[in-house]
Amino acid sequence: MGVVIRTADEGDRELVTRLLDEAFQDDPVSVWVFPDAAHRRAKHPGLMGMFTEVVLAEGRVDVTEDGTACALWLPVPADAGHADEEDDGPVRLREAVDPDNERVELIGRLTAGIHPVGRAHEYLWMIGVAPERQGEGLGTALVRSVLDRCDREGLPAYLEASNAGSRRLYERLGFALTGRPLDLPDGPRMWPMWREPQPGRGV
Fold this sequence. Notes:
The chain is an alpha+beta fold. Helix content is 43%, strand content 20%. It has seven helices and eight strands. Helix 6 links the parallel strand 4 and strand 5 (157-161).
């Protein structure tokens, strides 16, 4: 039986935030942003809540019908440029989530700095699967549903893989490394990955 997917709305905000928090508590990038485990447990949910708020307002959140997995997508227009030093989005994020933690702001600036420009695309910001359901193909089903639409519409897709395991998953879905990996200061590596549309596959 296939995975049933629906589009989340404001009523799903807490569910999506909880899923992302549980899925990314031990992710290498989250551990780098919040090195202290107790501090991470306290502040990480707020960061995931802010991400959820942004994508509910500006993009699309897909969730499995049973509420065990979600994917956050943002449409990026062709004329979107790199964020500049004057962009206060990362500053506002840090102030809202963890004012004394410069890494909350830095991760936003660094990922924005490597984001491809010049072509409209779908940006897979985050995908979270409940820990007890990981490895069952739920994340793959969520991603494929949007990639099928990208293929039909001739749209590329982009993401940053935050660990080697997710990188391998995305490679199987047609993504390839674009540009150079991002090595966080004294931290883990992230892999920017791009997928060209595959005409005929999403028909």
